[in-house]
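From the pipeline queue, job 12 of 40. The input is one protein chain; the requested action is below.

Action: predict structure.
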Amino acid sequence: MAKQHPGPNSKHLRPIGGYKLSDQPLELNAGRPVIEVVVHNTGDRPIQVGSHFHFFEANRYLEFDRPAAFGKRLNIPATTSIRFEPGDRKTVQLIPFGGLQRVYGFNGLVQGWTGDDPTPPDYRPDRAESLHNARTRGFKFSAQDQGDNKKQ
């Protein structure tokens, strides 16, 4: 027996490609570990950082705890961003990248896996090398991580 179409007056009818939205609130990134960092725009122009940008590699004029941001992105909805006006100081939440946790591109400071789990040594980018790259290319670090991480 053929299944019948619900008809044009049915409450179940949705256009092709339509969405069925829940009436319950949605919690983004539920259960993911979250850290907070204070970010200061030391530049003279506004800086905008998108939701899935590797925050460790964000604009060199943003001053924050870069080592803590290694392998992390903003905890905001996809396709959105946070804008830092010149002189702004904001606290942002960061979460680890999901999936394979591979980071390529951006500012070229890290080219590979950024997770915390054990992995073959040839697969993980050298974290100390990434920190060195950021420092030598003039990326700002917050005062509390200037001394401790220069050795890395």
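Job complete. The two ends are 71 Å apart (CA to CA).
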